[in-house]
Amino acid sequence: MSFALVKLKGPAATWDDLRSARNKKRKRGSSIRKKNPVNLKIGTWVRILAELASKLFLAGVIGYLFYAGYNFMISTPRFQIQNVSFRGNHVLSDSQILEWLGPVKGENLISLDLVELNRRLSEHPWVQTATIQRVFPQGLKFELIERVPYARIKKDKVYLMDNFGVILSPEKPEYRDLPLVILPDNKEKDLLNGKVLHSLKTMHYFNKLSFFENNPIEAAKLIGHSRVLFVTRNKDVQIQMSMDDLNEGFKNFMIILDSLEGDNLRTKMIDLSFKNQVVVREKLKLNEILISTESQTN
Hints:
By secondary structure, this protein is of the alpha/beta class. The chain has 3 domains: 34-75; 78-146, Roll (Ubiquitin-like (UB roll)), CATH 3.10.20.310; 149-297, Cell division protein FtsQ/DivIB (Rossmann fold, 3-Layer(aba) Sandwich), CATH 3.40.50. It is 42% helix and 22% strand. The chain is built from 8 helices and 12 strands. The chain has helices at 11-35, 37-75, 94-101, 114-122, 188-192, 195-207, 246-260, 286-297, and strands at residues 83-87, 127-135, 139-146, 149-154, 158-162, 167-170, 180-182, 217-223, 227-232, 237-242, 268-271, 279-282. Strands 6-5-4-7-8-9-10-11-12 form a 9-stranded mixed beta sheet, sandwiched between helices. Strands 1-3-2 form a 3-stranded mixed beta sheet, covered by helices on one side. A hairpin with a 4-residue loop joins β9 (227-232) and β10. The longest helix is centred in the first third of the chain and has 39 residues, at 37-75. It starts with 10 loop residues before the first helix and ends with a helix. Residues 1-6 and 286-298 have low confidence and may be disordered.
């Protein structure tokens, strides 16, 4: 009896055989590519174009779905505005705001231009700042900060003005205790350049003094080109100052304040419009003020 002996290969020999087989496949593939280069290029381009077409198709489907969904949302009654709420408005009523803005209820919540709506609302004289928010599915929320009246301005008629010099509206009865500034027609520029506001602040400083506690200054009349005349509530004390140097005039008044405390000033006018001096004289009558104003402005 005879036996065939089979020699087992070690790991190294097995790895060499596998590497040799892989190299043969590479050579075979390389020879095929060399024989058919055109067919391979065509196949590559066909594959690329097919992938591109599929991606374009998918993008088109997604775009159409977005377009159809958007058209549905802006046309469905589910997103028509029905509830409008306001916060922060104390002077303006809800109906006044809606009248200023135009029709809002019934508009589509998605397509409504909030930037344009906010711009229109901010143009209202009483509105200092405003924010608008969508409240899904059918709501709109307004939050306002209104301007605060600071004084009354008398031109052709009496108006309310805030502390930035913005004219708000004609005078309202609840604000008749605010200080009054009598502004001639040709003094609009003083309102814009801040002279009137500075005068009002000076009036406020005067009224903090104990001297004016029971008889505060409540009116300021612009005279000529650069002077302002403050008049107390009882109209028995007048203070004339230069609008170009209000701080200096106030300092001069503080220097002589002690000497005025016991004086009878019911018929006096204190002139602080001169540099480094104070003049106390008989107060001007109203018709004299008007004549002086007309002569200086003509």
